[in-house]
Amino acid sequence: MADDLITLVTTDHRELQRLFEMMKTDKSSRPLALPLAVAMLEAHSEAEEDRVYPAVAREAGEKAGAEHAAEEHHEAESLGKHLLELDWESEEFDQALQEWIDAVEHHMEEEENEILPALSEAVGTERLRELGREFATRRAKALAGQPLKAAGGAGGGGGGTEGETRAELYEKARELGVEGRSTMNKEELAEQVAKAEDAGNG
Asked: Does the pLDDT value for residue 97 go beyond 60?
């Protein structure tokens, strides 16, 4: 069953590990492999936070696990972006690369040993396939850099959150102290940020 969520997520993990290994053993691969790995991790994380973690929190009752995993994503993303600014032949890069790899691999391990099995146990095969399709679509859009349309269509909430990415909305929600933000998808974050901003202006 190649289109179920667990297969898709673990396939991404193995591909990232392949890129990590390549960067460690062959420095000349870094200028190409690094931006690819950073973009891939970002799209993977965004798709998980938007589609997978809300299901983990609600359907598998693993709210704390989903929130912890989302926090790890944000840490890994900032480590990856920092690497893009360094000289890829420097010793500083080697150390930062290892730190990034350790953070991402720790996260993958937790996800594969705790989060995904909990979700798998809580939902049926059909739901895993449905989540897999949602994850793949969302990841593809993130990789293509397409602006995402709100799922609510024309009736979507107003406010200034229209063209923002989930990561930007998450940052705003964090600053505004929105509870449970880690397990919300993009539309829910936009709604809660707009509410919090309205409350602040009132």
From this structure: yes
